[in-house]
Amino acid sequence: MKLKRTLTALLALVLCLGIAAGPAALAEAAAPAEVKKGGTLLMSLGTEPTNLNPDGNYDANNGWIIQNCFNRLIKLNSMQEVLPDLARSYEVSEDGLMYTFHLYENVLFSDGQKMTSDDVKFTFETIRDKQTYAAYVMAQVDSIECPDELTVVFKMKAVDAAFLYNVAYQGTFVLPRHAYEGKDWMGADALQTPVGTGPFVFDSWDKGMRITLKKNPSYFMGPDVPYLDQVIFAFVADATTAKVAFLAGEYDILGVFSSTDYNEMRANPSIVLEVNIYPSRFLVGFNLTQKPFDDLKLRQAIAAGINKDEMMAIALKEVGLKAEHFLSPLFQWAVDDSVTVPAFDAEAAKKLMEETGLTKDADGFYLKATLDTMNYSPFPDLAQVFKSQMAAIGIDVTINMLEYASFDEKVVKNKDFQLALTSDYQGPEVSAIGNSVSSTGYMNYMGYNNPEVDKLLAEALTKATFEERAPLYKQVQAFMAQDLPYDLLSEWIGYYPHWDYVKGHPAGEEARAKTGYGEFTYVWLDK
After folding, report:
1. Model pTM score
2. Cβ contact 165:136 at 8 Å
3. Model confidence pLDDT, tens digit, residues 122-132
4. Under a CB-based contact definition with an 8 Å cutoff, are residues 287 and 446 in contact?
């Protein structure tokens, strides 16, 4: 069966490169002639992870670590593009119902045992059976077959246009059957000592201080990579403390970054800022199940009263990118340029407030409302600007700051809120917008329920080409603009400050075409 190249031209292009050259050739082609091997890289992280479990028990704080200890079949880079990983190539059947992955030879786990197609089968079947957080990857998978040790075949029940992107995202790292079969994948203490195939292997964990990884001498993309001997992740919760230590030369990469430090970092000629737009977006969500936020006119008034340019200047300190559309600009092929998020219009906002039927109190406010948000940058600053802007149109906002876990419990899980200022990850593939606006979406804490939107999202997943899918997503955007379950503020811009002697950063152009977004395989130190 021939390759269905129309599924995504990018994947076909990248994986053709993978077919044309083996791992050693790829590493050699990528390596600068002047590369210096060896040394230790130190990176600060804002939060210590609770576990090093790559698949079962999700922890947003272990991403940098597990990406250097494990591999997936295919992986995402910092631009949300899909690259080869354990699979040197793949094929998709013409009907979109069979994915065949061809694995690299001689891949070893860090305990010395060989990785085979059976480990891939074990990993994905356990993801399905344990209903881990990446179980959605298996939603349309009927069976997994292993014709030989280097071939894995996923047979689908129905077309799933997001399948490749979801396989390349999180929670799909290949684990060894011999080490993890029968283990508790979901417990907080599960899989604390990683056994993976990545460029680095776990060395030690000094609780409250650091995690140390050392070079994997048997890495399948070797023998020249990784270039570093060791990577140390140090935990520094306070952004100011981390910045001071970074500027003093204690860290090579600053992983705790406040937008207020942007101009200072940019002014230093020895510091490089790697800039990336993520499909994560700042937004204000409305509780549509609670009066008066079930009133479209009120939601429109709030949206018209938000001055996004002012938010960018005050809260995001010139590092924001104002949201223009209801889909991320990373998915330009699906964006409807004619459907834009509400523009700032103070007079229109005041008129809409009058049309809601709400009346002013003795203090001159139509409404008193609570805004739930999180207590780390940039949410407090965004919340203060929002509060000021709402006061101008007659809404008295009380800000309720919460830690991430408490916000997730109160707002996302229990839907106990009026207004919520948060960020929403809408990737790695455009279909992830369904997490926010489908009636069953995990991040649909707003209570939005439009059967037409549900139908469009489901249909879009059954289409194999961008050309077939784009009109469906454009209709979804029209409904979002019409119903306004939330108002988008800004794109999430990622910055990775590092000293200029750090070469091959995964977010930089030098390594982006061959490395995962948190992977240090091609990083080296020019000092």
Report:
1. 0.78
2. no
3. 999 999 999 88
4. yes
